[in-house]
Inverse folding.
């Protein structure tokens, strides 16, 4: 009774559409005359046509996820153990980017990384960039944009898992003559593993499907699979290819999830 | 003489250097935390700063001159006001519906054992772990295959938003219900309250903060969503879609004004909450002492 209305909504507008996506992905024809013909060739032609963008999406998402982890871990650690009464304020700082419209905060990087912006000027002055060097329209800009936009997804779960660590465990490690490094590696890091796992998934999945950073900060050389799907649906009206690409994206993520769960699980068993 | 003076002062100087180094080493993490916050705040500062810019040409990339004009004439750009209004309407309506539906699911999941509970959990969790582009694409195929029974527009956006907000509401409210003391409800029943009265007078007030948190989260997600909305909007424009469209030409500073306003309202609510928690924590500590 309680469930009915909400679950009905999810069934009709989440599960059923997934079915339609599958239905559409096996159709053939040209807009607006599509016919359902079990056209499995859509999948193979989608892969052969767009494997570059597919691989690139997972590559960018992977780098951005690692960058988020490396950047966010010390911050989350500091907030959990050192921030004291300022904790909630710093948590607010972490989520603050979410309060600025996604597209607008990505566009802000155009100002920051722009050719006449301060960062490019400094890098040119110290000769890291050549006189015609750019930051915009590069892989770096796209990955940096993704890293910034999904940073809170990594930082928050890390904070939650670090915050739950019993400080007495760290004292015990110290009493047993563990060096700070050793205490961190043997106590803190393993106990924060759930946060690392959750943060990695929450960052990687949306990052792999993203197309806004590639659109604004990159060139056609940085096109990701999201850009292709979006353009196929709304510009070239090639629904079957777009639908099969969506399925390939989701399927690949599912497989990666399973492999990831398997690796994380076995490590926990053997560790 | 000079050499003597040098040898005398050198240890002291080294001392300062060493002390400075030790200070940095000890506070490296704090310094890093501050730098990280600067990194997080930098684009936000740019957005707000450039809302006061008077750009020389059509492009708002380079700082030129300070002005209040963009704030005073925020709706002078064609279409921006309508887009903002649509965003607010969708967000309010979708959040309201999704909060109710999600809370009901959360109540059922925590309170009742029923067949298909695991499957329900999975269906609630799946939208959270599916890329937005796939969620948007699948909904679009549903609407496209409806033989024009459903026209893309305001209501398809509404449907999409309710769909993805429900899951967030369930997760948020469930967390609160799990830590819920059911003795309070039993006490109410013992005192002669029927189930409905108990729900209204005991259960609802206790889960209201979680519902409010979920609603605020849902509202923020709705007003910010681009990918799912864009695929299912047809010709209707929400604020993010307006930004996407105008970014192909040149983004006027008025866009920064709207984004800054959304940010400032949200941050004011957030700061209010931080301050409130800080005060209750202080009061509780005083109460114990």
């Amino acid at each position: 009774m309680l469930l009915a209305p909400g679950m009905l909504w999810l069934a009709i507008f989440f599960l059923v559409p997934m079915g339609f996506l599958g239905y559409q992905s096996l159709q053939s024809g040209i807009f607006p005359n599509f016919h359902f013909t079990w056209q499995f060739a859509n999948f193979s032609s989608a892969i052969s046509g767009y494997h570059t963008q597919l691989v690139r999406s997972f590559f960018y998402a992977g780098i951005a996820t690692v960058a988020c982890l490396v950047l966010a871990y010390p911050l989350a650690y500091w907030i959990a153990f050192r921030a004291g009464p300022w904790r909630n304020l710093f948590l607010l700082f972490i989520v603050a980017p979410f309060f600025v419209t996604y597209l607008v905060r990505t566009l802000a990087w155009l100002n920051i990384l722009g050719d006449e912006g301060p960062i490019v000027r400094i890098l040119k002055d110290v000769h890291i960039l050549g006189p015609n060097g750019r930051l915009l329209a590069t892989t770096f800009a796209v990955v940096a944009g993704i890293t910034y936009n999904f940073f809170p997804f990594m930082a928050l779960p890390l904070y939650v898992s670090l915050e739950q660590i019993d400080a007495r465990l760290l004292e015990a490690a110290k009493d047993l003559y563990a060096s700070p490094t050793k205490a961190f590696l043997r106590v803190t890091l393993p106990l924060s593993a759930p946060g690392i796992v959750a943060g990695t998934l929450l960052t990687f999945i949306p990052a792999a499907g993203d197309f806004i950073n590639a659109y604004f900060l990159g060139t056609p050389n940085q096109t990701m699979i999201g850009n292709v799907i979006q353009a196929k649906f709304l510009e070239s009206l090639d629904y079957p290819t777009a639908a099969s690409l969506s399925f390939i994206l989701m399927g690949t993520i599912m497989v990666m999830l399973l492999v990831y769960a398997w690796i994380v699980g076995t490590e926990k068993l053997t560790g | 003489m000079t050499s003597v003076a040098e040898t005398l002062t050198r240890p002291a100087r080294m001392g300062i250097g060493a002390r400075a180094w030790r200070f940095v080493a000890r506070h490296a993490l704090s310094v890093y935390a501050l730098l990280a916050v600067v990194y997080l705040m930098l684009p936000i500062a740019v957005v707000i700063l450039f809302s006061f810019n008077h750009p020389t040409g059509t492009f708002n990339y380079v700082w030129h001159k300070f002005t209040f004009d963009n704030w005073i004439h925020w709706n002078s750009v064609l279409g921006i006001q309508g887009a903002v209004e649509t965003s607010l309407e969708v967000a309010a309506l979708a959040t309201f519906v999704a909060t109710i539906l999600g809370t009901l699911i959360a109540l059922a999941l925590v309170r009742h054992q029923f067949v298909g509970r695991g499957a329900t959990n999975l269906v609630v969790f799946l939208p959270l772990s599916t890329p937005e582009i796939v969620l948007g694409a699948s909904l679009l195929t549903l609407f496209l295959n409806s033989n024009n029974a459903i026209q893309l527009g305001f209501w398809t956006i509404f449907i999409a938003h309710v769909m993805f907000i429900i899951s967030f509401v369930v997760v948020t409210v469930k967390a609160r219900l799990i830590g819920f003391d059911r003795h309070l409800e039993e006490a109410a029943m013992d005192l002669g309250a029927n189930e409905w009265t108990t729900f209204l007078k005991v259960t609802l007030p206790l889960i209201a903060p979680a519902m409010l948190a979920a609603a605020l989260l849902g509202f923020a997600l709705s007003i910010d969503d681009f990918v799912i909305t864009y695929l299912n909007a047809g010709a209707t424009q929400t604020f993010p879609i307006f930004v996407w469209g105008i970014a192909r030409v040149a983004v006027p500073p008025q866009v920064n004004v709207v984004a800054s306003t959304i940010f400032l309202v949200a941050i004011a609510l957030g700061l209010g909450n931080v301050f409130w928690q800080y005060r209750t924590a202080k009061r509780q500590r005083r109460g114990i002492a």
Observations:
- Residues 27 and 204 of chain B are 46 Å apart (CA to CA).
